[in-house]
Amino acid sequence: MKRFLGAAGITVLVWTGVYTLSQTIEQEGTVTRDMATVVRTDANASPVPEEPVDTRERVKHVALPSPLKAIYMTSCVVGTKDFRADVVSVIDDTEVNALVIDIKDFSGTLSFNPGADSFWYPAWQGSRCGALDMKEFIATLHEKGVYVIGRITVFQDPFYAAAHEEDAVKRADKVTVWKDSKGLAFVDVGAKNYWEHLIELSAASYNIGFDELNFDYVRYPSDGNMTDISHPQAEATQYGTSKEDNLEAFFKYFTTELRNPAHYTAVIHDGEQQIPIISADLFGMTTTAQDGMNIGQVLERALPYFDAVAPMVYPSHYPKNFIGIANPNSAPYVIVHHAMLEGVKRATATTTSIVAFTHERIGTSTPALYLKPAYDTRKLRTWIQDFDYGGDYGPKEVRAQFEASYDAGVQDWMIWAPSNRYTVDALLPVSSEVSLTDE
């Protein structure tokens, strides 16, 4: 084969020892590259092996939008193409720019196949729902610019607890597996084996395209016979029976590991984001309660560890006469505004009476006062109620919660509708440039 070079029309024939290539050269001794073989143009040079090709899969991620506006999709809906198309159409037609998808739900089973060699493969096999094409579905969302959040239930996991009873919450006898009022088992907060398995699942999830990992049920159990319950592994730690300390210890270790890039080396992640965004869901009353409410959750003890914390400030979940309102569910604006404003005050404060690993006591006064880091309000997200529970919720009630969140200084929200049927009339159309805060 011949190729003519430049005005002089020089032809160079190179024999690589594998096949004959005609290389166009401009300067003697220039390294040229063709297919998988690298040769030099001087006749006496030996072939130079091609540098190893990185065969790892390339996965793209979408950057965290500002503000974040998300809706939720169950593991059953994501596995049913017609149903999930209806949910995606809400994103296509409205201001929504993100989607929360169940990775592991209340059942403890998975919505995608982590691979036969994964510890979590049985949880996929045991799933009643899920998507065989989860990775491809996420890729189509990314093509639309949709930010994808994977929701993982943590300590409520009856599937794992049944297979690994040694790690389960026990009854008072410390032998029998405890179950809540719905018959669901929980994993002991102190079960470090389980922590490691969660890290593996998180890495697998990020590696197929989930942009963010959202952790729910990061708490001790709350419903059921609470007089016949024990947490043998947590109680054996240095923190003993302190639920707040044990939970913060989990937050600290878990999130540190999730930010270790070594867990995500199986694939190449395009863009600057090489580790996932990490968020947690908390009880709504964590913004107003001063203690752990017997579940271990304290706002100030979660904020240092997660990129975002989302209190579930559903008006229907507040008790009668909360802040003087007989029926909180009938006052969505007032409840959400009060709850999130209190959260903002606590997040941005530089002092607190709350004890935490990251707080430093000021002097020796009583009651004790502590220095704490001040956090930007972007650390907070509002979970919005879009379901009927104790009353009908329509466009007026849903929009009132958006407005309440904005007025409290929190711009990011996620909508919870267990049915995955959304009140579209509460959302701005995609073409609108008007924020609810401008109304």
List the topology elements.
Elements: E1 13-15, E2 20-22, E3 31-34, E4 37-40, E5 48-49, E6 57-59, E7 69-73, H1 75-78, H2 81-93, E8 98-104, H3 121-125, H4 134-143, E9 147-153, H5 158-163, H6 192-207, E10 212-216, H7 232-235, H8 243-258, E11 267-269, E12 277-283, H9 299-302, E13 308-312, H10 332-348, E14 351-352, E15 360-361, E16 370-371, E17 382-385, H11 395-408, E18 413-416
Parallel strand pairs: 6-11, 7-8, 7-18, 8-9, 9-10, 10-12, 12-13, 17-18
Antiparallel strand pairs: 1-2, 3-4, 4-5, 14-16, 15-16
InterPro entries: DUF4015, GH
Protein name: DUF4015 domain-containing protein
Domain DUF4015: 70-422
Structure overview:
There is one protein chain. The protein has 439 residues and is an alpha/beta fold. The chain has two domains: 1-53, no CATH class; 62-428, Glycosidases (TIM Barrel, Alpha-Beta Barrel), CATH 3.20.20.80. 25% of the residues lie in helices and 16% in strands. The strands form five sheets. It has an eight-stranded parallel beta sheet with strand order 13-12-10-9-8-7-18-17. Strands 3-4-5 form a three-stranded antiparallel beta sheet, with no helix packed on it. A three-stranded antiparallel beta sheet has the order 14-16-15, with no helix packed on it. It is globular, with a radius of gyration of 27 Å.
